[in-house]
Every structure is written in structure tokens, then in C-alpha cells.
Fold this sequence. Notes:
Layout: E1 7-14, H1 20-34, E2 40-47, E3 53-54, E4 57-58, E5 70-77, H2 80-87, H3 92-99, E6 109-113
Antiparallel strand pairs: 1-5, 1-6, 2-5, 3-4
Helix pairs in contact: 1-3
Amino acid sequence: MTATAQVRLVAEFTARPGDEEEVERLLLALAEAVRREPGCLDFTPHRVAAAPTLDGLALAAAGPAPAGRRFVVTEAYRDAAAFAEHLAAPYGPPFNAALGPLIEEDGSELTFLEARG
């Protein structure tokens, strides 16, 4: 990855049963702050939903993500420096400390992406 390449990633985590609404509240508050970062191009929280039924055809879910409890955040930053600034933001540690006891994983599971085509 070059210094000027955009940094794109997906962060995922699963709320413990009963903590879904608090996780969503924390995540939406974080999103407001992150979107104000000058190098942030995208910070979009998603909550995994049940697969829809279309014209009587039930679609299979892609994986074991529990509907309503799994959160996926798509993120994009202008470059590696902007991503480093995001990681150093003062609201990150309090968010992670509050999130930790509310999720099943030890922290957000990060998957970095490279655009193709």
C-alpha cells in the first residue's frame, strides 16, 4: 500500500444478547465524531438483518452472523496518514473501553480491502 492509497476496511463485531441497543447507541455516536475527521471518506455502520423473502423465495444468509446482533462498519480514509489520525483520535479509547464488555469478541475484527475494477 503506498502512502497516498486510500485505506478501506470493514470492522465487525457481535453484541452480546441484550446489549444490541447500547452497542448501536455507542456506534452511532462514534460515527458522528469519525465523520468529522478531515481524512474520513466513509464511516457507515450497518446492523446485520435477516435475509428477505422475495416472491416466496427465501434467500439464504451468507454466513453465521446473528441477525440483529452483528454489526458491520464500512470505513474509508483518504490515505494511511488519515487512518493513523483516526486511530489516534481521543474518542477511540473510550469507545473501545465501553464496547468491550458489550460484545462477544475481544475487539473489532478488521478486514482491509483493496478495490478491484
